[in-house]
Amino acid sequence: MGVLMSKKQQVERVQKCSAVVSAFQAGIKERPAPAKQAEGEVEEGKDPAKPSANPEEKNTEEAEQEETDSTAGPSTSQQASAPARDECKVNQEAWSRLRDGKGVEPEDLDKSHQLTPPAFVRPKREADDDQPVEVDLEKKEQPPSDEMCDVCEVWTADDLYPCRICTRVFHDGCLRELGYLRAEALQEMRDTAHTVTGWSCYYCDNLNLLLTEEEMYSLMETFKQCKIIPESCLVSDELLQYRHFASKQQFDKDLTDEQEEEVLAQFAALDPEKKGHIEWSDFLYFESLAVLRKLRTENSLVRLLTGKEREKARSVFLGLALDKDGVITRAECRQAQQSWFQKLNKDSQSCNVSISHVGPICESSPASSGSERSKTDESRPVTWADFLRESAIYILAARPNSSAMHIRLPL
């Protein structure tokens, strides 16, 4: 999970540094003016009877003029290569932001009045990450939201907007100044933060921040080999090409026709608004979840859940386990896994419709080989510990505010 390394003290320090830099830049701009004025005064104070310039000074001035002309000469060729250099610089900056877990364009942060964006630190795996986690079913967790804005550390009562995943709260003005939320996202936050649906802050919304540096490096290498450009949208052909490459690398064979249809179903799930392309963030979150499912154990994924997420899972399980001695059936477990995505039904669509767009998710998914599932498996008891382990990946996948489905599909 990304953490904020700088709060009020860093903001004040950066603001002071910004003031010093601004004063320094202003001084540089004003420096040539006094120099020219001084030259004029010297020329006016010269004796008319004396020669206007020393021969050596003349030679020096002529040499300087020639140098100026020569430097201005190759400007055409330099201008021709400028676009290539600019494009290379943009790509390098994009890769750097991807590595550091940031997704904001530089121009969006280039504001003199803007607050300092937070610094993210990728998590590290602990020695006991894969050990079972004991979460008491009877002990309720109701972590209260913070009292002060996470950015400015100021309390203003009703003007604070809470995150539904963690305990942080924010001012809409602070988020606007940070540059991490655009106008539409800010309005969505105002509309949903105080509702049952809720809103995820920029820490919790970004699933990519759950990856360690080693996991992120592996993912970036795959992107580079597939010529995936960070922060760019992908069309269906590009996603198919990427999946073909991944299949070739992992299994040394191309995708079958059936697998290509499943990839197109994934594309549709990541493009719920039918724009004809998938956003970079949705693609990145999808691939980040794939890395988590591949490299992490279920116990490790449970450790990523916050207190609010565990409490929601607890309330769902208790609602299904009425008069059943603390266990539920496999069918009820699948029903609960679907419930994490109810927030996505903006057009009054059912959860089953959203899941069906995605295709098979796992062996216990309602979309995978339902006719082959026996009645014995349907009624198999599921304990609270099993429920939490199996549901962790779905709970994490439901974190983003986007309406896209970010579940990794086995091909």
Explained architecture:
With 411 residues, this protein is mainly α. The chain contains 18 helices and four strands. It has helices spanning 8-30, 32-45, 55-72, 75-100, 106-109, 172-178, 183-192, 202-205, 213-225, 236-251, 257-270, 280-295, 298-302, 307-320, 330-339, 351-358, 375-378, 384-397, and strands spanning 160-162, 169-171, 327-329, 381-383. The protein has a two-stranded antiparallel ribbon with strand order 1-2. A two-stranded antiparallel ribbon has the order 3-4. Strand 1 (160-162) and strand 2 form a beta hairpin. Helix 10 crosses helix 11 (257-270) and helix 15 packs parallel to helix 18 (384-397). The protein is globular.
Give a brief rundown of this model.
The protein contains 18 helices and four strands.
Oligomeric state of the chains in view = single chain
Poorly predicted tracts of residues? 1-6, 33-39, 41-53, 70-74, 103-114, 344-371
Give helix % range.
40-55%
Kindly provide the radius of gyration, computed on alpha-carbon positions and rounded to a whole number of angstroms: 29 Å
Numbering strands along the chain, what is their spatial order in the largest sheet?
Answer: 1-2
Structural class: mainly alpha
Terminal Cα separation, in Å?
Answer: 28 Å
Write down the secondary-structure element order: HHHHHEEHHHHHHHHHEHHHEH
Number of strands: 4
Mean pLDDT: 74
Per DSSP, the total helix count is 18
* Main sheet attributes: strand count, strand direction, barrel closure: 2 strands, antiparallel
Shape: globular
User: In percent terms, what proportion of residues is strand?
Assistant: under 5%
